[in-house]
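haha ok so turns out i had the wrong file open the whole time. this is the CORRECT one, sorry everyone. sequence first:
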Amino acid sequence: MFLGFCEVLPDRVNILAELGERAEDIDPARAEAAKARAEAQLKAIKDESGYKEAHLAYVKAVTRLAAAQGPRV
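then structure:
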């Protein structure tokens, strides 16, 4: 799992993270395909082996899709 920290100040936001992507650089179709692959991997898991990697792939794909869709009002 990726961890990071965010500091919000009146004039700026500082982000320290292991990974970062701009929303405009995300290809929604590619992220959707990655999500489908991760879902298939999660469904195929018979025991704990491989769960962590498949779950991480799923979380990354869902997060990318959310970022690509932009803020919800």
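The helical segments are 28-44, 51-69.
again sry for the mixup
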